[in-house]
Amino acid sequence: MEPSAAVVASLKMSEKCGSGSQFASAFAGEIHGRERPRAGPFYREEMTLEHTGIAPDPRYAYPRPPFQAQQQEVPGDTREMDPRPDHGESSYVGSGRLRGRRALITGADSGIGRAVAIAFAREGADVALTFLPQEAEEGEEVVRLAVDAGVTVAAFVGDISEEEFSRQLVDRAAEALGGLDVLAFVAGTMPTIDGIERFETETLDRVLRTNVHSLFWITQAALPHLQPGSTIVTTSSQQGFHPSPSLVEYAVSKAGIVNWTRAMSGQLIERGIRVNGVAPGPIWTPLQPSSVPNEKIEHFGEEAPVGRPGQPAELASAYVFLASQESSYVTGETIAVTGGTVLH
Length: 344
Hints:
The protein is an alpha/beta fold. It has a single domain (66-337), classed as Rossmann fold, CATH 3.40.50.720. The protein has nine helices and ten strands. The strands form two sheets. The protein has an eight-stranded parallel β-sheet with strand order 1-6-5-4-7-8-9-10, with helices on both faces. α6 links the parallel β8 (231-235) and β9. α2 runs parallel beside α3, α4 packs parallel to α5 (201-222) and α5 (201-222) runs parallel beside α6.
């Protein structure tokens, strides 16, 4: 395999996996030189598009509700969703906007994290991807897609709600990529709790450790690696601004991320490091069938002015912008990608 298409190191940070990980054996020497993805938007064949000028009507660019009832176990699986989400596998075409960058992306197996991983790799960034053990099969698919882009890819399986893993992850990623320039925090958990009667401290603690504590652990561990010009991109949510009653724990964590982004940007700009975030609205990811009841799944996203949920691919360019030099005068900001719902 050519060095530029190498897959580096990998799985659980434990003695059980050691250096002979399944990722190394699965990917080494067999994935390179594949056809470049075609340009242009990706649409399902059965979809009817209404064109206005050179672009499709955004209301009909992707599937609209009603959707079929569907439930999954946490954390969910993209392959079992109907319709299947679009992460940019067949649509995202890069132009070298992140060439030479080295990015750590959490939650890269599915949803928004998968779309970000594909976009970053196709924009030329070397990427270190992390996901849970139960997400490893989907993670392998993302590794292959990133390798196809001709960049260096490192994959790490573990749980960022665990402090030890989070801190070790940074050094392992920096070692694999030869440094770090970008942190993209996408991983998150979203339990649905119907009422305060069902509140459990353990659930809240899990949400905060995954969604908020990990930002502190990973950023602190990454500081020795991040030079002036580095960037951090967080993922909050529309829920951090307009919380739903059944998502209190999640909304609290996402509001915390908005404020972490603003406050940390003030700290780190003194080091020449920018910190920004993306606030997604209703996005069609495995979080939905694994965390949202069927009656809401069937009508998911219809409350957005666009009238449908967003696809992960529709967020990727926001992360690329914030990770690139194009956003050099932007820090402390959160970009809303909500299908028209106004947050600020």
